[in-house]
Amino acid sequence: MAVREIIQVGNPVLRDRSIKVMRFDKTLTELVDDMIETMQDSNGVGLAAPQIGVLSRVIVVEMPDDEQYPHPGERFVLCNPKIVKASRETEIGEEGCLSVRGYVGQVERAVEVVISGQDIKGKKVRIKAHDFLARAFQHEIDHLNGVLYVDIAEENSVMTLEEYQELLQQEQEAGAEQTEPSIAV
Fold first, then answer.
1. CATH architecture classification, 12-177
2. Residue 114, φ and ψ in degrees, nearest 5
3. With bands split at pLDDT 50, 70 and 90, how would you rate the model's confidence at 42?
């Protein structure tokens, strides 16, 4: 296992469409092991193979080990994932990306999705995901199609982490002065 370099926005590999995984072998296992180690080393929740320069349809997602998240502490490894069903209900939420370091934005995503794909051995799998897990799957699958969250973020919502922290601070201060809670961006 090795920590690999995460490529950043501007690298053309992030804009390419990934290739279907056909061989479920030792090379794939090594890729997945490296992806998991790289994601964990960067404190990420998910990683797609293109983010480390490999144009294979492989994603890893690991939920924080916290009861406020669906499937706390659970890790998902999917090859050739695709969204087969998405709820009509959507939600705008904060997203960041290991390939767009230092920025966050607001992205509208389906609240629930059903994902089909294959595990690391090639066995077909189907996962029903909701809330944060659904958002993570949609974000990582976008990477496989050359799409970054900044491409689909709400207009004028992408900002630096510093600007975002400042905005949150302002909202907290405004909320302390009001009797009604402020609406989070």
1. Alpha-Beta Complex (3.90)
2. -115, 125
3. very high
Element (H, E) at 112: strand 112-118
**Three-state DSSP class for 21?**
coil
- What is the spatial distance between Cα 127 and Cα 138, in angstroms, rounded to a whole number? 12
Alpha-carbon separation of residue 146 from 55, 132, 178 (angstroms):
10, 21, 43
Q: Which of 149, 30, 144, 31 is nearest to 95 (CA)?
A: 149
Predicted local confidence at residue 64, as pLDDT: 87
Is there a contact between 98 and 51 (Cβ–Cβ < 8 Å)?
yes
d(CA 160, CA 112): 28
pTM score of the predicted model: 0.90
**Active site amino acids:** 140
pLDDT digits (tens, 9 = 90+) for 53-99: 999 999 999 998 888 877 888 999 999 999 999 999 999 999 999 99
